[in-house]
Every structure is written in C-alpha cells, then in structure tokens.
Design brief:
Length: 193
C-alpha cells in the first residue's frame, strides 16, 4: 500500500519542516502547495499569472487552480507515496482530492493537522525574528499573515469533520520543538501504514 499523506495547519506552524522530515524518512515525494504555486509564478505560466494576485494578498487561489496545479504534479508520481503540505485548506478541496485519489486507486492514508494557536505562532515569529521569514516570499507582512490565519480559523472545523468521519484525521500538538513533533507523527504513521 502506498503512503499518501497530507499535512495542514495554520500559516507558520512548521508543516513544511515536518513534511520534509517525513518525506526523507519514508522515501516520499514532498509537495508544498504554496511552493508549487510560487514555481508557477516564477515560470510566469498561465497558472502562475492567475495565482499571483491572490497570493500577493494573502488570499487562497481558487480551488480549481490549486487542484489543477496539484494534479499535474501528482500525475508525474503516479498519485502515490507523497506528503503534501498546505492542501486541503477548505472542505471543497478535501472532498475533491479524496474522491479523485480514491478513483485512481491511491486513497489518502491520513491528514495530519498541526495544532497551534495564533498567539503561539506569533510568539515563535517574534523569537525567530527575520530568520523565520522565507526570503523568496512576498506575502509575509502582518496583514497577509492575519488574512491567512482568519481563513484557516474559518475552515479548519469543516475539514476536520470531513476527514474525521473517514477516520483519517490526526491532530498533533505543534507547539513544541521539531523533534518531538516529528516523533509523534512517526508514531501515528506506524499505527496506520
Ligand atoms: P503557503 O506556502 O502554504 O503558506 O502558501 C502560500 C500561498 O499559496 C497561500 O497564501 C495561498 O495564496 C496559496 N495556496 C497555498 N495552498 C493553497 C491551497 N490549498 N488552496 C489555495 N491556495 C493555496
């Protein structure tokens, strides 16, 4: 059975860091939804040009755009053995990817959710200072960060409910150093793989 993982959480929760570690341990392809979109922008593709206005304002790109870009990438790896960070961010995305992967006989193994409050993330940001910032990102000013957080707050419950009903949602306390978070994720993966 392939290992098809998703990792989500509020902006700044450390999901990309964890996704990279998990990918390395289980030999998975790491896909960052935000990075896929930034790559499209850098390439000035049609997708990238459409995405730019949304990303630069800290807004989500339309579901069909995110989905198309993601599916193009997943096709190159036969829809199997991956960890995707930053998708699904809304219920509709969760539904369509769940359905799509099931149809391709490569169902979702689990959606891992890093839990962390806005206050906890702000404290981390303050501590890390500018080092925390990803230098090629143009969408990390306070207003855009707040927009992303509000969007997360509005959407996480419905995403959680949907994947919980399928027994595929895993909460991990994200307000800890990298190693214990990683260890907990590994424990959960070992239970289900
Ligand atoms: P991230 O690197 O995960 O913080 O994502 C950066 C930006 O890419 C977000 O602010 C959105 O504009 C866009 N983006 C990332 N993931 C998604 C998604 N699942 N759906 C729509 N837009 C997304």
């Amino acid at each position: 059975m392939s290992l098809n993982l998703f990792i989500i959480g509020p902006s700044g929760c450390g999901k990309t860091t964890q996704a990279k570690l998990i990918a390395e341990k289980y030999n998975l392809t790491h896909i960052s939804m935000g990075q896929l979109l930034r790559d499209e922008m850098a390439a000035k593709s049609g997708y990238g040009l459409e995405a730019k206005g949304y990303i630069d304002n800290g807004k989500l790109v339309p579901d069909d755009l995110a989905f198309d870009v993601l599916i193009n990438k997943l096709k190159t790896i036969n829809f199997a053995n991956f960890i995707i960070d930053g998708f699904p961010r809304v219920l509709n995305q969760g539904r369509i990817i769940e359905f799509y992967l099931r149809k391709n006989n490569s169902p979702i193994t689990a959606v891992i959710h890093l839990t962390l409050s806005f206050e906890q993330i702000s404290a981390r940001r303050a501590k890390a200072g500018t080092e925390f910032q990803d230098k090629d990102r143009t969408d990390n000013n306070p207003q855009e960060i707040a927009n992303r957080q509000a969007f997360y707050d509005d959407n996480i419950d419905s995403v959680r409910e949907y994947f919980e009903s399928k027994g595929k949602f895993i909460d991990i306390d994200g307000n800890r150093p990298i190693e214990p978070i990683f260890e907990d994720i590994v424990k959960e993966i070992e239970k289900i793989k």
